[in-house]
Amino acid sequence: IKKNSVVLDIGCNQGKLSEYLVEKKQCKVYGIDETKNCNFIKISKYFSCDLNKGLPDLNFNELDYVVFLDVIEHLKNPEDFMKNLYDKLSENEKVEVLISTPNISFFIIRFMLLLGFFNYGKRGILDKTHTRLFTFKSFKKLIENSNFKIIYTKGIPVPFPLGVGNNIFGKFLININKFLIAIWKSFFSYQIFYKIKPKASLKLLLKKAEEKIKLND
To answer: Where are the strands (E) in 1-76, listed by range?
Structure first.
């Protein structure tokens, strides 16, 4: 995310990323989450919103980035949400959407299934609050069917420092995981990350055609 950008942080949680963008990159940040009482002093505006019911009213055309990290798997109908998001962003040529979700085809989950286990828990890929699960292929299909194009793909390693501490050993394990991801992304990635853009809408194309005609006249 470039400095001095306008960012919409969907699912901003406690606002740590939003505050980082404001403090370190001088961004103007809007935050969305379901919590009603929040003290995000450093962001421009906070919206309390149930994403299953849609998005709040704001100027989507001024946005440079939409940050949508580890949220879509919590929604009841991700397809409807992504189509709604496209409708909001379809006239914005500059916007980029940063989106991520857990990878259900991660090798540990595959081994668990091989042994006949599939147990939800308090956190991780099988967090009990997750309503939808994705592989790289199914997530790509969801995005492309919602009229977005993928411009960057990345496999995210396991957050080992959360378990073993932010130390040499934790960093060593992450580097090993990154190496394995480079070999077989869909098998060794803990999470899926895409940078996407909305495809040009018919309304935007007509608007650009009209502007070109005016310039020629």
So the answer is: 6-10, 28-33, 45-48, 65-69
| Mean pLDDT, residues 74-97 | 95
Q: Kindly state the DSSP code that residue 24 receives in the 8-state scheme.
A: H
Rounded CA-CA distance 176/167 in Å is: 14
| Dist. CA 200–CA 205, nearest whole Å | 7
Residue 15: what pLDDT?
82
**Separation of alpha carbons 188 and 38, rounded Å:** 36
Kindly tell me if the per-residue pLDDT of 62 is higher than 90: yes
Under 8 Å CB-to-CB from 174, ≥6 apart: which residues?
A: 157, 158, 160, 161
Higher pLDDT, 54 or 39: 54
Cβ atoms within 10 Å of 44's Cβ, excluding its own? 15
Predicted TM-score (pTM) above 0.85: yes
Contact indicator for 79, 145 with CB cutoff of 8 Å: yes
The secondary structure of residue 121, as a DSSP letter, is: B
Q: Side chain identity at 104, as an amino acid letter? A: I
